[in-house]
Amino acid sequence: MALADATDKNNGWAAALIAGTARPFIVTSAAVAEATHILNNGPRALEFLERLVAQMHVEDPAPVSVLAEMRRWDKSMDYADACAVLLARRHKGAVVLTTDHRDFSVYRVPFVSPKGEFHG
User: Fold this and answer.
1) End-to-end CA gap in the chain
2) How many angstroms separate the CA atoms of 105 and 78, rounded?
3) What is the mean pLDDT of the chain?
4) Which of 6, 19, 20, 78 has the most CB atoms around its CB within 10 Å?
């Protein structure tokens, strides 16, 4: 969401990170849904997200696996986070790009956030 919202305090961080990364990007439908909701389905935001997602590979873990992962964390993990965690485990060398440092520092998958990173 930070990348799609120029007023977000993490917009510059997200833009620099995306521009400086040559790796392919994977996004889940859950993350896109979360972004559209947070951005209030604004027409400009939707256009930006459409262009951005068109450059990414969309991959969704099986819902049963996502729900099992969420259950493992006892109400502290949302659906989009569970999808990201499962994909990070599935793809060797994958790193989650997130502004949610607090939650991802608990999930123990490689991530990068504006507040730091973990590469376990």
Assistant:
1) 25
2) 15
3) 87
4) 78
Check: CB of residue 91 under 8 Å from CB of residue 99.
Answer: no
The 10s digit of each residue's pLDDT in 46-56 is 998 999 899 89
CB distance 105 to 117 below 8 Å: no
Which residues have a Cβ under 8 Å from the Cβ of 73 and sit 6 or more positions away? 82, 106, 107
Q: Which of 10, 17, 4, 35 is nearest to 96 (CA)?
A: 17
Q: What does pTM read for this prediction?
A: 0.84
Output the CA–CA distances (angstroms, integers) from residue 88 to 3, 26, 48, 51, 117, in the order listed. 20, 10, 25, 23, 14
pLDDT at 36: 92
| Identity of the amino acid at 118 | F
Give CATH for domain 11-118: 3.40.50
> Domain-by-domain residue ranges, the chain?
11-118
Give 22-79 pLDDT, tens digit per residue.
Answer: 778 999 999 999 989 988 888 988 998 999 899 899 999 999 999 999 999 978 899 9
